[in-house]
């Protein structure tokens, strides 16, 4: 008889965002006139840039004619997009990538969730705490997390990201093999400096660990901070980088992202790049031509300007929320070089109590920090991905509630 993968039974029944959605919907059903402001789930609200729409329209048109129709794409993504990425996202940072090191995909969630397939089940995994849940749950499914005690997984190494370390983790005390890092960070909004990343790269090179670097929010970085782990010397030998057009250009519904695996990254002499090629060849058939044409359009002059304007809009929301909450007396982190606001709950309230109180008193929805890991308890995440009006109203309401 068939047996199920027992690791799935270990997963917590409720995914954080489903719980947030359920509680919000229950409140809305009981209070049909309430005007709820949702700043909980990290989805964008601005439409796609005109240059992207134009490129996608043209791509759809090509699909309608035998001479220009596209079926299965080029392996690992169209070279027009991979070259544009190498030339625009990396060359200006002084990083030279071969397009064979860039893999186009349909999302950084799937790639960060799938990358673990390349590594042994015995590897010890280190995650930031609080953390983007995908890194944890995908390792639970893979049998690398051990057992859950209601707060922590027994085999995961948690790296607390707390006020005392500026939400940038310290090196782990126990040896670890796979290290997930994400900067600018979801959920804390913290960013890492060159020195912070150098400490991690040096550690990984010394111990033979691999860094899985999620740079989904790098477009929110202004001057003076690393936008790619490959800005650090030696990172090509120890790090994989994930990027996405979701937060950069509003592609959460279109789907297009990419992963960089340098040729130098070898484990026991085996090329990780070659393994991922083999894996993708077997299990993946590329993002659609239309999505890839849309993504390439953000590297045109017009597209780049339009996308920068939207990012600037979200960044202004973030600063406005951060400064407004601070001046109202809240302790607030993030919001700079990041679309996330990480606020301490007032009066020592738990994250979920604060969630319920805000929903009940002023109908503002955020995400309870404890849902991202034990060190998130007592914190609350708000996103700057709403409209300016939503963000201003949410700020006004939170101030009036406390
Ligand atoms: C939004 C987000 C992503 C992007 O996911 P996609 O699948 O590309 O939409 C990746 N990592 C983090 C931490 C995110 O918050």
List keywords for this structure.
7-stranded mixed beta sheet, 15 strands, 402 residues, 4-stranded antiparallel beta sheet, Aspartate Aminotransferase, domain 1, alpha/beta, 14% strand, binds pyridoxal-5'-phosphate, single chain, 13 helices, Aspartate Aminotransferase, domain 2
Layout of helices and strands:
Blueprint lengths: L5 H5 L5 H15 L6 E2 L11 H14 L15 H12 L11 E4 L2 H7 L10 E5 L3 H9 L15 E4 L17 E5 L11 H14 L2 E5 L24 E6 H5 L7 E4 L5 E2 L2 E2 H12 L5 H8 L4 H27 L4 E3 L5 E5 L6 H12 L1 E2 L1 E2 L10 E5 L4 H14 L1
Parallel strand pairs: 1-13, 3-4, 3-5, 5-6, 6-7
Antiparallel strand pairs: 2-8, 7-8, 9-10, 11-12, 12-15, 14-15
Helix pairs in contact: 3-10, 4-10, 5-6, 11-13
The structure holds pyridoxal-5'-phosphate.
Biggest β-sheet description? 7 strands, mixed
- Strand % is 5-15%
Radius of gyration: 21 Å
Structural class: alpha/beta
Strands in their spatial order, largest beta sheet: 2-8-7-6-5-3-4
Coarse shape: globular
3D structure, described in words:
The chain has 402 residues and is an alpha/beta fold. The protein folds into two domains: 14-43 and 302-401, Aspartate Aminotransferase, domain 1 (Alpha-Beta Complex); 53-298, Aspartate Aminotransferase, domain 2. The protein has 13 helices and 15 strands. It has helices at 6-10, 16-30, 50-63, 79-90, 108-114, 133-141, 194-207, 245-249, 272-283, 289-296, 301-327, 351-362, 388-401; strands spanning 37-38, 102-105, 125-129, 157-160, 178-182, 210-214, 239-244, 257-260, 266-267, 270-271, 332-334, 340-344, 364-365, 367-368, 379-383. The strands form four sheets. The chain has a seven-stranded mixed sheet with strand order 2-8-7-6-5-3-4, sandwiched between helices. A four-stranded antiparallel sheet has the order 11-12-15-14. A two-stranded parallel sheet has the order 1-13. The chain is globular, with a radius of gyration of 21 Å. The mean pLDDT is 97. The site of pyridoxal-5'-phosphate has 14 residues, from helix 5 and helix 8.
């Amino acid at each position: 008889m068939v047996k199920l993968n027992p690791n799935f039974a270990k997963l917590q029944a409720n995914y954080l965002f489903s719980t947030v959605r359920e509680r919000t919907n229950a409140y809305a059903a009981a209070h049909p006139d309430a005007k709820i402001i949702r700043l909980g789930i990290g989805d964008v609200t601005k439409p796609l840039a005109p240059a992207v729409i134009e490129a996608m329209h043209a791509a759809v048109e090509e699909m309608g004619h035998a001479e220009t129709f596209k079926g299965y794409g080029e392996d690992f993504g169209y070279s027009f997009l991979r070259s544009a990425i190498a030339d625009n996202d990396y060359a200006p940072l002084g990083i030279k990538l071969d397009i064979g090191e860039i893999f186009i995909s349909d999302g950084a969630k799937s790639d960060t969730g799938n990358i673990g397939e390349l590594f042994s089940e015995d590897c010890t995994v280190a995650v930031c705490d609080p953390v983007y849940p995908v890194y944890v749950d995908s390792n639970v499914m893979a049998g690398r997390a051990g057992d859950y005690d209601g707060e922590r997984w027994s085999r995961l190494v948690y790296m607390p990201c707390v006020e005392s370390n500026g939400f940038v983790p310290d090196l782990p005390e126990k040896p670890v093999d796979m290290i997930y890092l994400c900067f600018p960070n979801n959920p804390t909004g913290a960013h890492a400096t060159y020195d912070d990343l150098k400490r991690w790269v040096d550690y990984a090179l010394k111990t033979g660990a691999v860094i899985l670097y999620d740079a989904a929010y790098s477009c929110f970085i202004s001057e003076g901070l690393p936008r790619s782990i490959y800005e650090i010397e030696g990172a090509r030998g120890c790090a994989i980088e994930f990027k996405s057009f979701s937060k950069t250009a509003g592609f959460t519904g279109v789907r297009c992202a990419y992963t960089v695996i340098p040729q130098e990254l070898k484990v026991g002499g085996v090329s990780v790049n070659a393994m991922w090629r083999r894996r993708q060849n077997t299990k993946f058939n590329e993002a659609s031509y239309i999505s890839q044409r849309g993504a390439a359009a953000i590297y045109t002059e017009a597209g780049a300007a339009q996308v920068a304007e939207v990012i600037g809009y979200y960044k202004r929301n973030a600063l406005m929320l951060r400064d407004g909450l601070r001046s109202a007396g809240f302790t607030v982190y993030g919001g700079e070089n990041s679309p996330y606001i990480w606020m301490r709950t007032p009066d020592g309230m738990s994250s979920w109590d604060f969630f319920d109180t805000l929903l009940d008193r002023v109908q503002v929805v955020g995400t309870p920090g404890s849902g991202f890991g034990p060190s998130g308890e007592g914190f609350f995440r708000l996103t700057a991905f709403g409209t300016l009006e939503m963000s201003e109203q949410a700020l006004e309401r939170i101030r009036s509630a406390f």
